[in-house]
Amino acid sequence: MQRLKLIYFLALTAALSACQNTYYPTGRTYNRIEVDATTQADTGMSRFLQPYKQQLDQTMTEMLVRSDVSLEKGKPESAINNLLADALRQEAGKRYGKPIDIGHLNYSGVRSGLPKGPITVGNIYEVMPFDNQITVLTLKGSQVMQLLNHFLKDEALVISGLRATIANDKVQSVTLANGKPLQPDETYTVAMSDYVANGGSGASFLKDAVRREDLNVNIRDAFIDYFRQLGKAGQPINPTTDGRITIQ
User: Fold this and answer.
1) Which of 29, 71, 207, 228 has a Cα at 20 to 30 A from 146?
2) Domain that holds residue 111
3) pTM of this prediction?
């Protein structure tokens, strides 16, 4: 019956609009409506949303893995910074079809830490609430150095696949995971968010990348996959800093 009423209402609205003149507003007024703890809930709307809320709650409370420690982001390096950058690089490599040289996250894009104990899907949404996608840029070594110095100056470095030595607020040297120094004229693959690849956070110089490949996967979803696989292994996580950023 409700479905028939809705169809009838839509049909009636369409019929009336077809035979009437078009009107335009000549003015606007508004009233301020206070919404606080004393505001009464719309019971009809609550009943309508309840099935969706139950499904959402079930999704968000799924436990992915356990952590032995509480994790908070920090400068110049922290365990969660390293964990997330490593997760991005690894998951990007799976989807790219070959290993990624460097993983990069903008520090301000990591919005929360992770608790000690169960880590749920909801916790990952708190860490990465944005719908940013993974993009792989091929950059020259000189462009990688420009990227690192840019984010070192404005935020902090959240990186994977390299070790950076910093002095006088500038990256002085970079060594890759294979032990080789970064070469200005060689090219490297860098996994990052499409936000940064598009020039976000002032990184407009990335438009000159040698190559760009969008993986069409949400960074948050990649993190969820990463932590779910760790959980299936049956071991809690206990990430640490490893000295990938050294300040002299």
Assistant:
1) 71
2) 65-243
3) 0.79
